[in-house]
Amino acid sequence: QVQLVESGGGLVQPGGSLRLSCKISIFTLDYYAIGWYRQAPGKDYEGVSCISSSDGSTYYADSVKGRFTISRDNAKNTVYLEMNSLKPEDTAVYYCVADHLIFDVTYYCRKDFRYLEVWGQGTLVTVSS
Known about the structure:
Helix content is 4%, strand content 49%. The protein is built from 1 helix and 11 strands. It has one helix at 105-109; strands spanning 3-7, 10-12, 18-25, 32-39, 45-52, 58-60, 68-73, 78-83, 92-100, 118-119, 123-127.
């Protein structure tokens, strides 16, 4: 069974940076869509960014374009989310998610969070001065 373990969350000041990591326990990372969802207090889940483990194609929500960068290291079975120029509205629990790659990677970042194949336990990111 695929398991996802996130790390890297914490408290950061506005304008600061954080890097989230998602370690995926699986024999091979081929043909997966892996990404990050977040849930801010009192709000619904939002697909932030997703990446194809096969061709590296990516998706970003409009709210994070130009500030966040997703990348993968297939040899380490790890996906990263580099977050720069953080804003208070980025405060949320961030979840690493994964699903078998059948459609375009965008599909998985717009899918109902509850129907994704696997998700991690979440890591809290707090942006505050």
